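BUG: 3D viewer hangs when loading the predicted structure for this chain

Environment: internal workstation, default settings.
Expected: structure renders.
Actual: progress bar stalls at 90%.

Input used:
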Amino acid sequence: MMKVTFPRLEDLRVDSDLRQRDIAEYLHMHLEVYRRYEKGTREIPVWAVIKLAKFYNTSTDYILGLSDQRTLEK
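Structure tokens produced before the viewer hung:
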């Protein structure tokens, strides 16, 4: 199994002064599940990427590392 990491998940969370527990609650999941997403030991579902992109006002491409544009233009 290939390990896929999403360092931007942690960066976005820390920059927003949030704890992993805050994001886990927002996503309605156990803390350990969210921790594994940040570590890359568990694959993050598409619905969670979309919900986090909306929460952080960024694109799913940014979270996935496909774009370097952090904020969405209005």
